[in-house]
Design a protein that fits this description.
With 522 residues, this protein is of the alpha/beta class. The chain has four domains: 163 residues, no CATH class; 70 residues, Alpha-Beta Plaits (2-Layer Sandwich), CATH 3.30.70; 96 residues, Elongation Factor Tu (Ef-tu), domain 3, CATH 2.40.30; 140 residues, Rossmann fold, CATH 3.40.50.80. It contains 16 helices and 16 strands. A six-stranded antiparallel β-barrel has the order 4-5-8-7-6-9. The protein has a five-stranded parallel beta sheet with strand order 12-11-10-13-14, sandwiched between helices. The protein is elongated, with a radius of gyration of 28 Å. It starts with 12 loop residues before the first strand and ends in a 12-residue tail after the last strand.
Length: 522
């Protein structure tokens, strides 16, 4: 897929069951495939399943595959944890192979039915018919299960005859106008809001690439999509939806491009790579074409990490030269981070790559305020580096008020840009910098959390608060600030965690929507 290699697998094992049906309908696969060997009439459920999926495909394409298929539920829920979960070979996507499997299935079912038909009118007809369908279900269970374990859970779905028939009947439904109002597709609010992070492709059960396939109507038109919502629930930017044509138009009309409309692609050269701490680097990019990137502090930039896959990672701009011909980003390497491993392992000083920016609106600071409060923990301090530089060191903005930066970390060595903040605070009476450690190794630092300092601050209700850090810290900070009378409209927040984290066993868990910081997607 790429000439560059990450030490982290590309495809992510993630939850795919967002309803009780999807979580437990696999039971039918066991009941029919195995139970039908002992109670053959159980196989008579299969014709009803086939009729349901074909009927649904006329109106909604392969929706059945992603939401009701018993085999799909079996593969996703029972076999995904033990699957190798690697790339599905192109062989299984070949039209020739798919057509051959469909023809074999139709031939096999027809010849077997002819044999069974000979018993019509006898007591054993229905048992023989049920046994025929039960054997078919068992075959898919065994072959599909083997492919699921040794390759990928949804390998069988690439050539499944029922999936192929759904595509055929979906085309018929579109030709007859049946799917015009009911057909729902994956929709992006606007392509300019997409970070091209590839997360949708990494979690897609059948390994499609939605971020590369949105049409001018903002819809992902690939007929192979099984409408399973997995990419939607894993999008770090929270900009994907399942929508019909009408809802798509409503989304397009209601979407704001504020903070994104000025973004441009830039050719850039890595001027320097500086080790700040263990696993944390500062990258300085020299812009070549266009040679400047004007931005507001708090915005982020997309950094190309994989040219062949047109894949980027978004990082908050943590500083720039005075003429904006150079910008800096600060990156923390995450053990399970596909993008940060590519960046750390494969890019060196002097390399040329593509950037896109500036982007983002959540942490752009309003210079019209009289009181500003910045709250950060961990790597979440990076957007405030550029803010302090532009507001208090270079004075790029006319700001006459006062600002306080509260910064929390675990240990002394975890503090980033500590000397810089200290030096600016000493030279500028309108900027107050306070830090706190949750696990200090010495008594030179205050012990606690950034939220502990909030109790000491005398804040007016009009104070504008900008928060970047973990969701837990942000929640505690907001609660205490509300108690101090800070107005809800004055909170601006982004999280330094990605929307989806990967557990030790490889299965991604979920945080609540819109908690992702675009500048810290790993």
């Amino acid at each position: 897929m790429s000439s560059r290699v990450s030490s982290v697998p590309f495809y992510i094992k993630t939850n795919r069951s967002f309803s009780l049906v999807r979580r437990y309908v696999w039971f039918l696969t066991i009941l029919i495939g195995i139970g039908g060997q002992f109670v053959p009439v159980l196989g008579l459920l299969v014709p009803f399943i086939m009729a349901a999926l074909i009927g649904m495909s006329l109106f909604k394409g392969k929706y059945w595959c992603g939401n009701f298929c018993p085999h799909g539920s079996f593969f996703d829920n029972l076999l995904q944890p033990i699957s190798r979960h690697v790339k599905i070979p192109d062989f299984f996507r070949s039209r020739l192979v798919i057509a051959a499997v469909l023809l074999f299935f139709m031939y096999n079912m027809t010849t077997r039915f002819i044999r069974v038909y000979g018993a019509l009118g006898t007591a054993e007809f229905y048992e023989r018919l049920g046994f025929m369908f039960a054997n078919t279900y068992l075959m898919v269970l065994l072959i599909g299960g083997l492919l699921a374990v040794v390759i990928n859970p949804r390998t069988w779905c690439q050539l499944c005859p029922m999936g192929t028939m759904q595509v055929i009947f979906y085309k018929l439904g579109k030709a007859l106008g049946l799917a015009q109002k009911t057909d729902e597709r994956v929709v992006v609010e606007h392509p300019d809001l997409c970070h091209s992070c590839g997360k949708c492709a990494r979690v897609c059960p059948i390994q499609l690439t939605p971020y590369l396939g949105f049409s001018q109507n903002h819809r992902f038109e690939d007929e192979s999509c099984i409408r399973c919502y997995t990419c939607i629930n894993n999008c770090p930017a929270g900009i994907l939806h399942m929508a019909n044509v009408q809802k798509t138009e409503e989304l397009k009309q209601s979407t704001s491009l504020d903070g994104f409309s000025e973004a441009r692609y830039h050719t850039a050269r890595i001027k320097s790579i500086r080790e700040l701490k263990d696993g944390i680097r500062e990258y300085t990019f020299e812009l070549i074409d266009p040679p400047q990137m004007p931005y507001d502090p708090g915005q982020f930039v997309l950094v190309e990490i994989d040219k062949s896959m047109q894949m980027y990672r978004a990082y908050t701009i943590s500083g720039s030269s005075s003429d904006n011909t150079e910008i800096r980003v600060t990156v923390k390497r995450l053990e399970d981070g596909y993008g940060t491993n590519l960046l750390f392992n494969n890019f060196q000083e002097g390399d040329t790559l593509t950037l896109k920016g500036p982007m983002g609106r959540e942490l752009r600071v309003d210079p019209a305020g009289d009181e500003l409060l910045f709250i950060a923990n961990g790597i979440g301090v990076t957007p405030f580096v550029a803010t302090v530089q532009r507001f208090f060191e270079r004075r790029d903005y006319k700001f006459e008020g006062k600002a306080v930066l509260l910064y929390g970390a675990r240990y002394e060595e975890d503090l980033l840009y500590d000397d810089y903040f200290e030096s600016v605070a000493v030279k500028n009476g309108s900027f107050d910098y306070r830090k706190i450690l949750s696990r200090p190794r010495t008594d030179q630092y205050r012990k606690g959390y950034v939220t502990d300092i909030l109790q000491e601050l005398d804040l007016s209700p009009a104070t504008k608060v900008y928060i970047c850090g973990t969701p837990e810290m942000a929640g505690d900070a907001k609660k205490k600030l509300r108690e101090k009378g800070i107005l809800e409209k004055n909170f601006f927040y982004e999280s330094s965690w990605s929307l989806r984290r990967v557990n030790k066993d490889g299965l991604a868990d979920s945080l609540s929507p819109h908690q992702s910081l675009p500048g810290h997607l790993h």
